[in-house]
Amino acid sequence: MYGFLIAVGVLLLLSIIWMVYRIQSLVSVVKGSNKKIATGSNKVNAILFVLFLLGTGFLMFWYSIKEFDNYELPVASEHGVVTDGLFWVTMAVTGVVFLITHVLLFIFPYKYQYKEDRKATFYPDNNKLEIIWTLVPGVVLAGLVITGWMAWSDITAPAPENAHVVEIMGSQFQWDIRYPGKDNVLGDYDYRLTSATNAHGVDFTDKNAMDDFPSPVVVIPKGEPVLFKIRARDVLHSVFAPHMRLKMDAVPGMPTRFWFVPTKTTAEMREETGNPEFEYEIACTEICGRGHFSMRKIIQVVEPEEYQKWFAEQRSFIQMNPSLAEGIPAEAKELAEN
């Protein structure tokens, strides 16, 4: 510990000495000292700027090409194609601007390094230039924002009437899944009804809740619209399904939604990726506590026929736990048990 403190003290002392030296140099310049202020380090620094530009530029392009397949995941939803298109258009526009500005940023120190026989040009303003570099970015950014807003409006708009509904509820530290029964309508819920046997807080006095059922995984059909109804029980979570290009926050007290159409089954994606163990997944992208890392739920995309077969085999909450039916009308109980 003492060695560390001594090292820090030495670094601070050296920093102070260097700052004092720099202040003295600046004061001499202000006073008009005849002392030469440009040394050999001026040219060295100018060359280093260029070398840094070439080195980091090479590393950026090399890494981007080498790791492209790792960060460009296969897309498996209809709107994901639109999302990817918007991403790459934005990347192209901002990437070109980034390259131009940074090439100029590192070339200028070399080209315009200090020379005693050269005087800087006085160039106070240029109204035409300022109008151009204000209007052009404004128009380009407006185009990007508007196209993004249109895509966002589509995926957050009301889902088609035939959409398969799935409720995803986040809690520390898991995702709980609830499906409606044959009526495709989820029953009401109330956080005050939450218990060890009723994690969703489902209100079983609502007839629409009679046939609701849970599932350990999210099963959805290929080629048909799916509506995720998203909520949180405790803190802020975020539903993220990367291959579907799906991300939506799960906010306590404020239900959200996201609908999409999956385009590839799990089996097809396994064949495409060459990974026999591939699984679609939902991850949480909000730091929700110590167990955040464990918030993972598998998504299985299957053919519509297989989905209908799986759906018909599921048992409702009340069929799995008849005690949940206590206190509800007899006719409703009979309906639930059937």
Automatic annotation (TrEMBL):
It catalyses: 4 Fe(II)-[cytochrome c] + O2 + 8 H(+)(in) = 4 Fe(III)-[cytochrome c] + 2 H2O + 4 H(+)(out). Its cofactor is Cu cation. It comes from the Bacteria. Its EC number is 7.1.1.9. Residues 161-313 form the Cytochrome oxidase subunit II copper A binding domain. GO terms for biological process: ATP synthesis coupled electron transport. Pfam families: COX2 (PF00116), COX2_TM (PF02790). Coiled coil: none annotated. One of its GO terms (cellular component) is plasma membrane. PROSITE patterns: COX2_CUA, COX2_TM. It is an enzyme of class 7 (translocase). It is found in: Cell membrane; Membrane. Keywords: Copper, Electron transport, Membrane, Metal-binding, Respiratory chain, Translocase, Transmembrane, Transmembrane helix, Transport. It is a multi-pass membrane protein. Its main location: membrane. InterPro entries: CcO_II, CcO_II-like_C, Cupredoxin, Cyt_c_oxidase_su2_TM_dom, Cyt_c_oxidase_su2_TM_sf. The keyword Electron transport applies. GO terms for molecular function: copper ion binding; cytochrome-c oxidase activity. The chain crosses the membrane at residues 6-23, 44-65, 85-110, 131-152. Residues 59-159 form the Cytochrome oxidase subunit II transmembrane region profile domain. Binds a copper A center. Subunits I and II form the functional core of the enzyme complex. Electrons originating in cytochrome c are transferred via heme a and Cu(A) to the binuclear center formed by heme a3 and Cu(B). Belongs to the cytochrome c oxidase subunit 2 family. This is Cytochrome c oxidase subunit 2. It comes from Algoriphagus iocasae.
